[in-house]
Predict the 3D structure of the following.
Amino acid sequence: MTWGDPCVTASPRADGEAVGEEGRIAAPEGALAALAGCRDPYLIGVRHHSPALAAAVPALLAAADPEVLLIELPVEFAPWIDHLADPATVPPVALAGSGDGLVFLPFAEFSPELAAIRWARQADVPVVPFDLPLGAREGRDGSGRELPEVNGRSAPEGSSAGALSAALHARASGRPGDDLWDRLVESAAPGSTPEALRRAALLVGWALRSDAGPVDRHDLRREAHMRSRLAEFRGRRTAAVVGSFHSPALVGWELSPPSPDDRPTKAMEVSTSLVPYSYPLLDERSGYPAGIRDPEWQHGVFAAAGDPRLLDDLLTATAVRICAEIRGAGHPSGPADAREVVRVARDLAALRGLPAAGRGELAEAAQTVLTQGRLLGRGRVVAAAMEKVLVGRRRGRLAPGTPRSGLGPAVERLLGELKLPRPEEPDRRELRLDVLRGELDRRREVALRRLAVCRIPYGEESAVAGVGDAAALTSRWVVDWSPATAAMLDVAGMHGVTLEQAAAGVLRQRRAEERRQGGPSAAEALDGLAEATRCVLPALAVERLAEAAEQLPATGTLPELLAGMTLLDRIRSGHVPGLDVGWEQQAVTAAHEELAAAGVRALDGLAGSTDPEDARALVALAGQASAVGGGLRLADALVRLEAGGTPLMRGAAGAARVLLGQWDPHAFGTGLASRADGASTPELRGQLAECLRGALLAAGPLLETGRALDPLLERVEQFADRAFLDRLPALRAGFDVLSPAARSRLLSVVEDRTGAQVGTLRGVDPAMSARLALADLAGREALTASGLLVAGVSPKRRTSPGAG
């Protein structure tokens, strides 16, 4: 057999190369003859977005006259084919499916698959999606996530054109930087017949496959499934609209049945929907991996249907619109500029042997004529105008009667009531919500939390700093409506027809999964309680509260216990929007007491810790436990830590005792001053640093307590210069743990004591200047001796300007 015999010439090998009986790779002429001559099925190899081929597809299918049309789409999208083909559906729209992740398949007027589906509706030909089901797919990166595709085939990282593709690319006329598809299909389309375009598209797919090397296992499984579906229609006239890369795998499909390894290995529940899309998102610069540059221009190319005269009209109209946008931005640009852009674009097309000027010629001509050599000034204005004109702002619209989940309309109505972005007004907005003061802000906060729980991409929360060390009581969000929002609303609709029902359904499903895994763990119980209260789901919150009260004291770590007590404090104080003050007061108070008691029991385990976070947790826990009457057990644990813990924990335990009123503040400060006074060796100075770190984690409350730090400050002021310099590294290490707010408060205390402001030395006499100079020299000697300063090199030359 040779490639010249249609339909039964060769079968795809496991590595993706088509071979004949003697194992020789087929020549391009033979491969093209086999692909174009095959009639079972009649092959139309496509790229997902191709204006040239989309315009040619109706004529190709009319000539083939198939009884069944097979489309490279997952079978789960079959219920949406009629709605996609409905003339009242206005592209762009997108099919969305959820399996291991969200899958988007956008369609525009210039999508060949959409053109084929609409032809089939008019010709009363059934359409059969025959790609591998979404529920049986395995992502090529092992995660179940679909990767970008080029001409229906995965694009591996670092891939480049092979020798065959490069040779075909060099022989075809076109623009520098065009890929093989653009050169052989799009650029050659004006004036070409539909059959010539089909053959060119099939040749591109074969060349890419021949150069690709071993075909990805995921693609092989998809192709095996396509062949098995084709076998169901044996004996009937069939046409297949498929990615051009996969076309060779369908030639001679009856000779290569799928192997067991290529059959689907798993299945999962999949939700699908049809949602409106937009041209700005379809543009590949928006991040859509299989997008196309400048969709509005491509729409015009599709409407021209390969007529060179109409394409020239499109060039002229687009140049005029670009100049008008530049004028609208306040820069001069008139009809003469538009005429010159058109002239240059036509000349570039003629020099390149193209039948008509395309997007590339227009872009080069506009840059040459309109920027006037100023790329960073006027050039940016021109680029913005071109993007606005060439990308466009078209938004799709679904046909009346297209099914939607009840959740989507309910959420759209809710967003309208809350005056938030929705399909009619999708613009991005920034919000700062004060949930404790305004009813509107409270409802917005709850809605955004519920949308986030349902994993609906709509609002993104950003951090808000509190005043001093206090927690923030407001929240900041950035919200906008996108097609992904509409798609995920349909996916989440399986959990309920209102946002409250959907959020409750998602969280209950998560809880059920935790139970199947033997949980919930302490962390899961805490997260579940936080989500249920933030989403104002009282029934679920009661259940999660009981779980947290059981799991956290038994298995929670000290940070988890602290987080639980903080959350319960917020609930008890009425700082969770939607939950009234006093909600489940008895249960919340009992749970808080249980967590506090468990935290006290965990204190003995901190005796050997050198982690500042443990010291911080100790101070925070002491405050939380004291609020519910920690009693003798808390006092006894702190005394043991202060007596037998590491220097870090001793300092923290002492500070906690002061805050709890168990130790006199002045006595505590005297103890710190004594440690500083006795730090005469490196080991003792290291202990001083750690003790100060532990104590100063509570510096803010200690300063407010009274004279807790006064003895230490007085002793530091009395040190001789040498003694002060010896202890300076330890003192600095201790004060490094201060928060910005605590630093400011301590600085205010020092300034009040000295009567001088930071950065000023008022009334310095010559003797004081001499002492300061000697201190500088002593410091320099100490740095040199420690190796931190190279002798003979000026510090100014060892640092960058402004380094301090």
